[in-house]
Structures are given as structure tokens and as C-alpha cells.
């Protein structure tokens, strides 16, 4: 990289995806930067708020994610000569060369980022990030910051919602890479689903990049690739403790299969099982005797997959190994999981195999919030869910509307009006607080002007809806948490928040979700969490609004 | 890169996104590879088909995209030592080290890829790609190939559908980067929307990577960042031909604004326009006198934005410059575009400015197929559409279900059964043809066994529905096009298809879409395009099906 800027080198790595460069932005950020520069305005100090207007998925909460990647971009924000040459090519030839020299020296050393910590539960209108700096530079940051935060927060929220429905005790596996919106869609999905509360991913690249636990065993193709038991040439298997060797593991499995078939309690459930499937299971067990998990629905779950699995699992058990379990990838997952569980329990009892009834059951196949909810209502015996398409593409709502609005320039507050009140921006450089009640739940988020005194513990404070004058409430906070922290101090000398590991962010996120009042979190008709402004900020917003709105002329 | 394989070096660059590596796959591909290796099966020759089962967006066609990235991955498919170490860490410690030596030597020199050409219109069940090679290697390719093709084809199809509704004469701009599913979602979207028929993108990185034309001017923030005309200090502007200089362009604009206000025909349409907006427009025009395009809805389109724009455009016109136009980003786009057009036409007439009535009108704001269709029905005057969120996230259907199924191993055809007939796979290594009728339209796609003679021009051939015995038709093709071509010959010595430029693929795609019979393409109730198998393949499928399906036992 022939970066030419002279910005701060504070040892923060660049973004995970090397394609995230200062060119990953909209062309109009460069045309505007040029127009600012040409008008001598490029260094005017601007403050932009990054926020969203509505929680996704019909819910009343959002998980904030993507911050670390933003800071990594900002810390390394410099143009290479190659990039500058391309920008020059892309702008009209009349553009003065001085502008490109300006880009050469440009970095984010004069930009300040205050943000809510990654993994926090967040709400509409409250800035997730306040970006302050020379207007031309901050403008260039708009698109990449939105790109890095929009999908990250959307998919982390989706993961948290899936966790909420599945329950805390279930293992949740993200299996979405093949259906994700592009390779990075896949890698980001794995990262932010883990952050939002998933336990593992199938995505090996994401496992390597972020230390996310990996899961996966075999597919239908593996089962179909076997024709018969004759294909298994190496048939011996050492016992788990190494003390003896079973010379013909295949025979041992076949013996167990006969016992199962003759069992009084299981009798009549199945006849001839599929022999290619059996060959595949045995081969897989020979390769992974300590990690035997079989996909049991290639032919017929109850008449072939389950008996074949159990025969192999019992043969393994005889050698001291404990099978992990099965995966169901089609059919009625509630019914099949219950039937499989019954089968396992009968075996535990009839053949006196301790804990065989607890053999793990993983389910996959187009799962989403609704199907998890339906499974819960029907009753099921699934221990782990593998979730792909709906999770990673956020099928129920594939985009979050995070926006980036100018709220102050040259110390002058700015407001963006709109016929649609929900689209009016909240002006001024602001501070934001979360106020907690006596039961420990967050009660309300409040925005104040930069220089207002912060809300005080135990003191009554008036919280006003920013646009609806009749909605207001007094709150006596038992705890006050300032939400916006400094993540990039520019030259301000303020101390910089550390960027924690993804594991710590995940823990924080789970904790944040746990501390919410349950009625904000429920799937159907959740209670909106309150977002407010101080009385002083309320008055100022409405003063500015009147001032800026054109007075109609009846002509 | 410390790649350790010894594969073919034929000078194909790696994938665009450096994160696309052999690790971008599901863990189970490695566990299966190990199990194949352990069973001595890893080099068994397998054939997999990559296809989808249903066209997206309720339509009856799909654009095939993503092939070039797949070939780039395959051409460079080798593990680094670092990656092998990670795989070893991720698999159970009992895995034998010989397997990792095997991975060290692994590449795709023994893999053969036959595929439909990128940019072709494609249909369900027909393999988009046939991947043949050692089963363990081909299995490792499954996830990355699906990841690279699923979203690419989905978003290219979405772009083609938007083009279809917008009409050929409109300029279509992709503005989706900020809402895309991650940075690569954004870059892939720009690439494949261009391929599917868009004209330009706002995404600078995509412009640089793929040579896609770039578009963009300014945002609302640019308008809000100005307070008054006093901010404009450098007020002179040279005429377009360089022959004279207007010393006070601001005054010239103000003079035009007064003229507009006094105009008999425009009289009464507007009063005082917003001065910050005017200052922003003038600054933008001073920076880009040849490329003046203004966003006119920050305050009030008809009472401020349009008059301000026209005053600046007319002042530019006086200096020999021609303004490009306006952008509308909110409100009733049909109404506002028609009113703006009227305004421009009055000016053309009243002030005798040739072609002013044709000033460009760009519209944006949450556009999708439905809103474009509604605009057409209402009547509008928009020349260019900027489309973001709905286009790039494929909001109407955010995932395509491309799958990868084993159809043959060791020359033995394999079938994957399912209770759901639409999920039964079509076995055998196959050839695929598109048969054209006498009017030049494609009539039907047909799959045959690898060794069947190809359909002959002018000779009657029976085309059968693969699963419905009563659906069959005789076709006498006027043209026969073999669909699967060799893109990666492995060691077969077959000649390799070239990878054309994205511009050529885009042209091919547009041509392909144009040659389809119109009833397959319409938005509502399109006619399904027929996909068939030869009589011989039909018989074989059903023979194999009966052979594999378990005979129920009435127990």
C-alpha cells in the first residue's frame, strides 16, 4: 500500500475485508468534497449523527454492531496514489489539481468519533455514532460507515431474535454461508450472528478470522456417495481408551442392527435399512469415532436413518465412544425429533446404555423465528438448531435504514425537515444517556444538548418525546449511563475506548439483552422503549423548526 | 501467500475479494474430505450439478452470474500452510497427519467445470455448472461456488427485472452501497446490477474494480451545510468557451431568480426561495459548471428547489453551459416530475432557451419494481432512476436457492430422493441444449445423458417433463445451442472458454433477455419456460428412482 497521508499511527489494524478502503463510498461524496474544497468550506467543522428510525423485524430493539470495523477504517483512512488517480479520472477534467493534493494529505486525525459500545441494545433516533470533523472528510466517511453498520446491526439483531425464540438452553449454529449475499455477506453474518448470541458457525474462514467455534459433520452427498458395505476396506477400530481393537467394526454394527430389529420394544418400527446410508455412517464413524454425528434423513428417518445411526452408535459405545447425535434436515422436525428421542430412550432402557436417551438432536432446513416458535408450541426434542438462509439474509427484512445526518456545522445547529415528521432530524451536537429504574431495567434514553448538565441520580428529570408535545414523563433515575463514548479522539486528547474482543462484545450483548424489561422483547406486540429529549433540547428543536420551515404564501 | 500446491498456473487472477479463499467453506466439507480420505475414497470421480429449483421474484427467468469469480477461485485453489494449520486445529486431534499432507498437495488440476456462459438467461433444474473431479476436492468447492453464484445470479436477475419495468430508454443507476449486506454485498451488487442491465453505479470501488460508469452529485447534507449566500466568496465563473468571465455569478443567478418570479407564466408558483439551498446550488455550479445536477427536495420542490435550480441553470446557460438536471428524492415522484417538466418547458418557451424543456430528471427514494410500475401507470417525466435498498438487498426475495447435488460417482448415477418431488435430483452426467423455434425464440431446454446423440436441426425430438409423465412435446428445432461449455478443463485437454469482460457479458445478457418470448418475461402471470429431459433420460431417472426408493413394509 502506497498510502500517502501522515495521519496518526496508533497500531489499529485495517478492516477485516481488505476491500473496505476509502474508495468504498459513493461518488457524490467526492463531488461534494470537491465542491466544499472549491468553496473553501472543506475544513468547516461539522457534526453528523448516525442513527436509524425504526427497529427491524417488527420488534422494539436493535443490537448495535459494526463499530470495530468502522474504527479500523478510520484509523487507516488514507488514499493511495492509485486511488487518487482513479478519483481524478472519475471527476470532470475541469477539477483543479489542488484538490487531489488535498486528498493526498487527508486522514482522520482531525475526526472525532463518539459511539455507543458495540453489542449494546439500541433504539431509534438515538445516535449510534456521532462523527465530528472537517465537513469534507466526514462526508467521505458516510457511505462506508453506513455499509459497515447497517447489515452488521441488522443481522446481529436477527440472531438475538432467533436466540430469544429458541431459548437459552439450545445450541444455535449459523449455517448460512452458501446463501449469504456474497462472500463478505457470509463472513459478516457469521461474525455478527455470533455476537448476537449464536454459539458456532459452519464458516471456516469466519472461524479463523474471529475465533468463532466451528461446527459441521456431513451432507446428503456424503451418504449418496456410498453404494454398499463392500466399499469399506479398513474395518478395524481401536477402543476409545486404546486398550483393545475391534477387528471388524462393520460386523459389530450389523450385529447391533439385528438386535435392534429383534427388539421387542422397537420391533416393527423398521425393516431393511438403506445399505449405502449404513456404509456412509460406518465410514464416518471410523473417521471420527469420538465425534459421530449423522445426517439421518437421506432415505427415511424412522425406517432407515435412525436405526442405522443407533446401530453405529451402539457399536461405538461398545468400544467406549459416545456418539454425539443426529441431524434432521427435512420433514416434520417436531414429530421426527420426538420419535427419535423415544427410540433413543427405548435403547437406553432395553440395552442399558446410560444416557443414550440424551443423544443430541440437531435440526436444520429453512428455519426462522416463526418455525422455531411453531416447534416450541408443538413440542419438540431438538437440542441444537442449524439456521441459514433466513438468518443471514435477514429474509424477514433484508435492510436496516441507518442514516447519517448533519446536525451542526460551524457551531450552528442544522435540522433536516420533512413532510414526514418521523424523518425530521434532531439538531445539535448532543449527549445521550440511558436512565435505569429501581428494578434495574433501562427506563428511557434521553438526548440533551452538549453543554447541559447530565441527569443526576435520584433527581427528577423531564423526558419529552422529541416531536409529540403531549408525550412527556418525569423520571427519577437510579442509574445514569452515558451512551456515547469516545472511540476516536482525533486531536482532542480525550482518552480512547478500547476495542474489546468479539467474545467480550458477545457477552456484553447477551447481558444487555437480559437486562431489558421482558415486554420490550416479546415477539408479538412488544412495548416500545421510550426515547426522549430534555426539555431544553425540545424547545430548541421546535424553535429551529419554525425558523427553517418556509412560511406558506397563499398566492 | 505461501501456497504449497503445484497446480496449473495459467495466469488467471484470484477472486476479486481476497477473502474468497479455500477456507471460505463449511466445516463439514473438511470433515467429509477427511472421511473420504480415511476410507480411501477421496479420489473417486464424482459429478455434481449446481442448479436452482425455482426462479426468484415470482418470475419465470433468472440471469446466471458469478461464473468468472468461481473460475478465479478454482484456478488458484491451493491451501497455504497457515490455512492447513487452522484446519488441523479445527478437526479432532485424532485426525491422521497424512490428511494434511494430502491437503498440501491438493489443487483443482483434476477438476473439470462445464458451465452455462455468464449472463445467459437460465431456468430451474438445468445445471448452471457441472463440476467433475475427485469427490473430496469437488465437495470442498460446494460452499464457495454456491456463495459466489447464489447472490450474483439473484441480484443480476433483480436488475434485469427493474430494467424490464423501467423500459429501455431510461437511465438506471445503482445507489445501494450503504444498505447492502456488507461491503462485498455492495461491491457484488454494483457488479451484477451492471451485468443485469443497469447503466452506472454510485460505488467508486466497484467503478475502479470493474470499469462500471460512475454517477453521483450531492446529498441533502450538502444543501444543509450552507447558511447564506454570504458564504460564497469566490464568485467569478469563466464562460464555457473561455472567451469571457462573469465576475459575479451570484448576482447573475439572483437576476434570473427575479426574472422567474416576475414571469407571467410562472408567476404565483413560488415566493421567497430558501437561501441556503440557493447558496449550495451556486457553490455546486461553481465547482461543476459543466455537470450541474441539483437535489431539489431539501426544503420544498416546487416553491424552492426548482426555481433555485432554474435560476442557476439559466445563469450557467448565459455562459454557454448546459445544466444536466435535477434529482427528486422524496414526495410524489410522478406529480413532481411532471410539474418540474412543465416548469422547464415554460422556461424554454418564455426565455427562448433551446432544449431547456428536456432538462434531465432523476428520481430516487426507495424505488422498486412495484413503484416503477406504478409511476409508469400514473405517467411521469423521469429520465433516470437511482435505485438502492430494494435492488441490492433483493428485498422482494433476498436469497436464491442454488444447490449442489451429486449426480454420479465412479460412473454410477446417483439420485437424491425426497418426499417433495420438486426436490428429487436428476441423476447422471448430462448434456444440456437450448432448442430454438422458427421465430427465433428459445422453445425449451433439454437434458440428455452424456453419450446420447445431440438434438439435430430440423429433426423431431421428444421433450419430456422430468417428473410428470403426461407432460411431453415434440419439438423440431431450428437452432440447437449446447449450454454447458468447458470453463476449466482440468487435465482433459478440452479447450477452455475465455472469460469475457463484464462489458461483454452485460451485452450478452441484454441480448439474451431481448430474445426471450415476451410472455415468459412479463411481471404478472408469466408463462413458465419449458425444461425437459430426453425420453431415454426420462426412462433412466424413473428406473433409478424405483430402484432406490425403499419399498414400504406394511408391518
What are the defining features of this structure?
555 residues; 22 strands; nicotinate phosphoribosyltransferase; homodimer; TIM Barrel; 37% helix; alpha/beta; 2 domains
Please report which band the strand proportion of chain A falls in: under 5%, 5-15%, 15-25%, 25-35%, 35-45% or over 45%: 15-25%
Query: Rg of chain A to the nearest angstrom?
Result: 29 Å
As an assembly, this protein is homodimer
Question: Termini of chain A, distance in Å?
Answer: 61 Å
Q: How many β-strand stretches of chain A?
A: 22
Class by helix and strand content of chain A?
alpha/beta
Any guess at the CATH architecture of the largest domain in chain A? Alpha-Beta Barrel
Largest interface: A-B, 125 and 126 residues
User: What global shape of chain A is seen?
Assistant: elongated
CATH class of the largest domain in chain A: Alpha Beta
Summarize the biggest pleated sheet of chain A. 6 strands, antiparallel
Describe the structure.
Two copies of one chain form a homodimer. Chain A is an alpha/beta fold and 555 residues long. Chain A folds into two domains: 286 residues, nicotinate phosphoribosyltransferase; 166 residues, TIM Barrel, CATH 3.20.20. The first copy, chain A, contains 17 helices and 22 strands. Chain A has a six-stranded antiparallel beta sheet with strand order 15-14-1-5-3-21, covered by helices on one side. Chain A has a six-stranded parallel beta sheet with strand order 7-6-13-12-11-10. In chain A, a hairpin with a 6-residue loop joins strand 8 and strand 9. In chain A, helix 5 packs parallel to helix 13 and helix 6 crosses helix 7. The longest helix of chain A has 32 residues. Chain A is elongated. The N terminus of chain A is likely disordered. Chains A and B meet through helix 1, helix 3, helix 5, helix 6 and helix 7 of A and helix 1, helix 3, helix 5, helix 6 and helix 7 of B. Chains A, B: This is Nicotinate phosphoribosyltransferase. Chains A, B: Keywords: Glycosyltransferase, Ligase, Magnesium, Manganese, Metal-binding, Phosphoprotein, Pyridine nucleotide biosynthesis, Transferase.
Amino acid at each position: 500500500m502506497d498510502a500517502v497521508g501522515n495521519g496518526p499511527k496508533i497500531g489499529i489494524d485495517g478492516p477485516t475485508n481488505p476491500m473496505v478502503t476509502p474508495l468504498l463510498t459513493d461518488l457524490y461524496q467526492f463531488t461534494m468534497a470537491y465542491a466544499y474544497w472549491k468553496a473553501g468550506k472543506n475544513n468547516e467543522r461539522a457534526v453528523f449523527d448516525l442513527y436509524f428510525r425504526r427497529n427491524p423485524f417488527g420488534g422494539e430493539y436493535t443490537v448495535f454492531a459494526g463499530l470495530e470495523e468502522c474504527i479500523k477504517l478510520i484509523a487507516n483512512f488514507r488514499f493511495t496514489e492509485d486511488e487518487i488517480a482513479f478519483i481524478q479520472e472519475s471527476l470532470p477534467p475541469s477539477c483543479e489539481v489542488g484538490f487531489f493534493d488535498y486528498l493526498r494529505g487527508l486522514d482522520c486525525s482531525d475526526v472525532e468519533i463518539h459511539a455507543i459500545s458495540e453489542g449494546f441494545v439500541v433504539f431509534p433516533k438515538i445516535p449510534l455514532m456521532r462523527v465530528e470533523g472537517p465537513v469534507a472528510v466526514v462526508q467521505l466517511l458516510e457511505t462506508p460507515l453506513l455499509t459497515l453498520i447497517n447489515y452488521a446491526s441488522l443481522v446481529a439483531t436477527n440472531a438475538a431474535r432467533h436466540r430469544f425464540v429458541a431459548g437459552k438452553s439450545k445450541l444455535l449454529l449459523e449455517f448460512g454461508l452458501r446463501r449469504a449475499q456474497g462472500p463478505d455477506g457470509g463472513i459478516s453474518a457469521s461474525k455478527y450472528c455470533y455476537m448476537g448470541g449464536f454459539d458456532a458457525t459452519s464458516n471456516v474462514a469466519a472461524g479463523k478470522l474471529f475465533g468463532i467455534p466451528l461446527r459441521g459433520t456431513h451432507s446428503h452427498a456424503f451418504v449418496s456417495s456410498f453404494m454398499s458395505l463392500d466399499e469399506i476396506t479398513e474395518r478395524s477400530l481401536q477402543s476409545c481408551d486404546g486398550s483393545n481393537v475391534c477387528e471388524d467394526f462393520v460386523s459389530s454394527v450389523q450385529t447391533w442392527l439385528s438386535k435392534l430389529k429383534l427388539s421387542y420394544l422397537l420391533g416393527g418400527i423398521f425393516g431393511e435399512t438403506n445399505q449405502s446410508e449404513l456404509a456412509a455412517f460406518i465410514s464416518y464413524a471410523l473417521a471420527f469415532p469420538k465425534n459421530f454425528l449423522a445426517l439421518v434423513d437421506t432415505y427415511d428417518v424412522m425406517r432407515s436413518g435412525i436405526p442405522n445411526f443407533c446401530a453405529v452408535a451402539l457399536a461405538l459405545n461398545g468400544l467406549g465412544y459416545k456418539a454425539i447425535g443426529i441431524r434432521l434436515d427435512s420433514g416434520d422436525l417436531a414429530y421426527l425429533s420426538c420419535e427419535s428421542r423415544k427410540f433413543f430412550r427405548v435403547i437406553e432402557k432395553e440395552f442399558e446404555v446410560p444416557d443414550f436417551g440424551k443423544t443430541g438432536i440437531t435440526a436444520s432446513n429453512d428455519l426462522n423465528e416463526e418455525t422455531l416458535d411453531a416447534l416450541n408450541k408443538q413440542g419438540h426434542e431438538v437440542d441444537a438448531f442449524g439456521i441459514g438462509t433466513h438468518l443471514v439474509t435477514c429474509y424477514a427484512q433484508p435492510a436496516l435504514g441507518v442514516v447519517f445526518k448533519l446536525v451542526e456545522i460551524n457551531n450552528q445547529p442544522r435540522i433536516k425537515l420533512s413532510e414526514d415528521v418521523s424523518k425530521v432530524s434532531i439538531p445539535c451536537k448532543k449527549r445521550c444517556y440511558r436512565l435505569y429504574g429501581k428494578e434495574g431495567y433501562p427506563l428511557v434514553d434521553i438526548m440533551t444538548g452538549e453543554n447541559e448538565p447530565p441527569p443526576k441520580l435520584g433527581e427528577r428529570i423531564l423526558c419529552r418525546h422529541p416531536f409529540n408535545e403531549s408525550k412527556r414523563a418525569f423520571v427519577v433515575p437510579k442509574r445514569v449511563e452515558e451512551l456515547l463514548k469516545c472511540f476516536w479522539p482525533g486531536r482532542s486528547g480525550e482518552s480512547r475506548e478500547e476495542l474489546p474482543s468479539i467474545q467480550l462484545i458477545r457477552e456484553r450483548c447477551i447481558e444487555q439483552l437480559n437486562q431489558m424489561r421482558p415486554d420490550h422483547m416479546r415477539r408479538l406486540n412488544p412495548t416500545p422503549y421510550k426515547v426522549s429529549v430534555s426539555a431544553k433540547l425540545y424547545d430548541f428543536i421546535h424553535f429551529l423548526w419554525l425558523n427553517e420551515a418556509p412560511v406558506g404564501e397563499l398566492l
